[in-house]
Amino acid sequence: MGKFTDEYFTMTEKDVLQYAKLQLDFFDGDAELTSREIGDGNLNYVFKIQDKKSNKSIIIKQAGPVARISDEFKVSPDRNRIESEILELQYKLSGGLVPKIYKYDSIMNCFAMEDLSDYEIMRTALNKHEKFPRFADHITTFLVNTLLLTSDVATNHKKKKELVKDFINPELCEITEDLVYTEPFYDCSRNDLLPETKKFAASNLWNDKKLLLETAKLKFEFMTNAQSLIHGDLHTGSIFVKSDSTKVFDSEFAFYGPAGYDIGNVIANLIFAYENAEAAILDEKEKEDYKGWLEVTIIDIIDLFSKKFKASWKENVSEKVANYEGFLEYYLGNILKDTSAVVGLELARRIIGLAHVSDIVSIKDIEKRTRAEKICLLSSKKFILDRENIKSGVDFIQVIKDAENKF
């Protein structure tokens, strides 16, 4: 029995250094270890442990009983088990497009994983207006492999139901149900808006009964459609990038839900980058060039996903009725419809709700920031209400361009 084997406690940098020495078979016996808390997320504690002699390093991520963003959110530490297991599964399915997991500890509610310090968080890089030409190819491979191959189309139904049970995630799902599907669409006390944006939200979203009805439908779809094992929080802050490589991480919101949820999150967060470029890049040629790259990336993600999905379907379909003529088109059409809806939900919740994105809040000119926020909210409404008709990459971009032209 010992310090790390009896009961859970929230570790400090000093504790995690001792933990690495005693509990991990990763470093050499004579290693000179240093530890640093590097987490900047809303939920967990993340530590980097490094050996000064060999330069070997590892990441330890620990989950506590409350969210770092607010004590209001009581969350089960079991999310750490869920994240470690889904990362191991996604690593196999995606061919290494997530970090490698070395150990999961059920007592300390932590896991050790590959250090990706030579990568950059994608949101940070996009805010510096960097380009990643291979990102669309990488992320669509990740999306197709993790979403299709965990669905009833390509997985034994009994095995899939066991996975649904293993990855049930009620506390984290409740956060999504509140912050994404509910609170942005009324004057909730936890919402956080600029005054002018609040007026716009009240007149254009909160008082639109048709829009509210659609968000209610979407919330119940999210809660009841166990379609695929989704990442559940796939924004640009949950993706590491280099010029030639992409790694998805932070899968703690994972559960079985609508496949379009992951795709929509990726697209919405690229739209935030698009509006950051519109507001923050002063040179017109540079702005046009960078927005042009983002347009192509968004278009490619939608269209490449559809192309790869169809190819993977033909190779991996195991359910007999899924081969009936027209079913593939029906199934993919529903995913794209959900994708559009989730783009709209994510655009609204990041502008109106508790958890903002640096792409928008870093815009120093308040008039430009307010314009960007209104563009996002107007687009949000279109993506939700017209989701049946938004199917191609060009359709997605056109919504944003139309909104920009109105301000």
TrEMBL record:
The answer to keyword Signal applying to this record is no
Keyword Nucleotide-binding assigned to the entry: answer is: yes
Domain Aminoglycoside phosphotransferase per the UniProt entry, residue ranges = 218-280
E.C. number(s) listed in UniProt: 2.7.1.100
Which keywords has UniProt assigned to this entry? ATP-binding, Kinase, Nucleotide-binding, Transferase
**Any one GO MF annotation of this record:** ATP binding
InterPro entries annotated for this entry? Answer: Aminoglycoside_PTrfase, Kinase-like_dom_sf, Methylthioribose_kinase
Which biological process terms from the Gene Ontology are attached to this UniProt entry? methionine biosynthetic process
Signal sequence interval, chain numbering: none
- Top EC category: transferase
Domain of life of the organism encoding this protein? Bacteria
Tell me its family: Belongs to the methylthioribose kinase family.
Assembly, in brief, is: Homodimer.
Protein name stated in the entry:
S-methyl-5-thioribose kinase
